[in-house]
Sequence to fold (650 residues):
Amino acid sequence: MMNSKPSWQVGLALVLCAIAMATMPMLANEAVAPMSSGTTTLVIALIALPAVASFAMFSGLASAAVLFIGAHGAAWLLIANISGNEGMARMPFFLLLAAAWLLAWRCVALLSAIRPLSKQVRTFLRLLIPAIFGAWILIIWEAVTRGAGVPFILLPPPSAIAARIGNSLPILAADVRQTIFKAVLFGYFVGCASGFVVAILADRVPFLRRGLLPIGNMVSALPIIGVAPIMVIWFGFEWQSKAAVVIIMTFFPMLVNTVAGLTASGHMERDLMRTYASNYWQTLFKLRLPAAAPFIFNALKINSTLALIGAIVAEFFGTPIVGMGFRISTEIGRMNVDMVWAEIAVAALAGSVFYGVVALIERATTFWHPSVRGGRA
Amino acid sequence: MLMTVNQATATSVERNAVVEARQLGLTFQTNDGPVRALSDVNLTINKGEFVSFIGPSGCGKTTFLRVIADLEQPTEGTISINGMTPEQARQARAYGYVFQAAALFPWRTIENNVGLPLEIIGLSKAEQQARIKRTMDLVNLTGFEKKYPWQLSGGMQQRASIARALAFDADLLLMDEPFGALDEIVRDHLNEQLLRLWRQTNKTICFVTHSIPEAVYLSTRIVVMSPRPGRVTDVIESTLPAERPLDIRESPEFLAIAARVRDGLRAGHSYED
Fold:
């Protein structure tokens, strides 16, 4: 079985443990609260014992579980003991962190190799694997920024960002309301809808297809940085000017994708509709639009992230005293980088949820497409 | 060279003609210059006939079918379908067309695929349901109404596409190599079913194929065509009885007709080598 053969991650972790033991102590001598030898031993044990055990285990699942406990226990102890000693960590600290990370890597590798039979377990694993992956980005970020004493303004530790989010919920909520629920959503719907309608018009009227598409191409090349201040002059400081920027940004991807999608139906299918003496609109709604759905959803997904970027950047150029872009630009000026990171985290979360919702609707709508049902054409 | 164009049996009653082509020709303008796809085709297809068009690739058999269906426009001669122009016939939904591939819409269930032409015509929901049920029965697909096309085998998909062509009850069925992509066993089975269906419904069927046994087994008349330019080289009346079990294909009568078709095909080819 896969786990019976020694993995290089676990081997390297043991080597790192040995080097760490030889180069103790973990913290500089000036440390205010030096780590007890008991804690140090516990960390090393938490790494070494599961590592050795994972060689002997027969089941991939059991060794993954042991590695999971060892890696995260060690990481937790390392981070917990750095508080009060920020910037005092010496090489063994980072070596042990790296060893713990290697165990987590091995754990994820084992979990990825498991082929569970039941659907629930499969779903659970599909969520667990990226969760461990993401958690380790945060763990390393936290341990390195605090252990090495990275200046707060350069990169605050995730715990500080989380604390800032917790303390500023009303401000963040107001910013989200202003930027996402007003500018982004309005601009997204109007931009996508108008791109769609113009695509249908361009399909129906050859003159528009020849004249409008090249101009649409030019509009898409407009630099958002240049357009945003002009939109502020035209539509004022409120969210309408940001929505206008979002409309400009989302219009063209929708137009191009829909025009491409409308040609996606096969010749045979169109001939078939012709033999039924089907009129333009019947063919459009019963054949061409369903066939174009994968293209249209592509545009909706691209636009979901473009809209967020557009609205935030547009707020840099004049805005009332609320909004995610406004907050980022003013707080960075006041050196409140944790607030900037908090806004970035909220924007990332909102963007992912937005994208995820569109992707879910896509799966439900284009269930028939080979890329969704995972079958042949 | 065998060039006798067997004029449609003059004895046939004029009113019975479903398709009538006179000096029909079609030239495609391509980037490599004009290509004559059809030349001087004279043919009358009567009501209730099962006519097969056979010939090598490029002989214009599919093009002729597409001209009947108003999917291509002839450049010479005349053609009428039930006394109308192909355009009028198409607008009147005078024919059902079965393509080489099933061309079912993957986002529709089988019953909704079969019901597609009925929706376009604008029949009532109840009438649609009744017709879907009847035609699904006819092609032995009952029980698969709620499946999606990609959940069915190739043979079943093609049967669904035949059901779709039958659903709106046109008297003329145009079939363009419908079983070409299927394996021999499925093909035999579908040929049997198609014959049964033709006898039950008394439709006129134009059937394009390049399989000699298929053409002889199915048809009341076989039109042999040859390429460059696409033209009719022979029209063979079948002497086989209407009732045709699969093993009729071993009878001397069957083999004699097959031999004549093969000769016709060879004659059309001879000048090439």
Observations:
- Residues 5 and 51 of chain B are 16 Å apart (CA to CA).
- Residues 1-14 of chain B have pLDDT under 50 and may be disordered.
- The longest strand of chain B covers residues 17-30.
- Strands of chain B lie at 17-30, 33-46, 50-54, 76-81, 95-98, 172-176, 204-209, 221-226, 231-237.
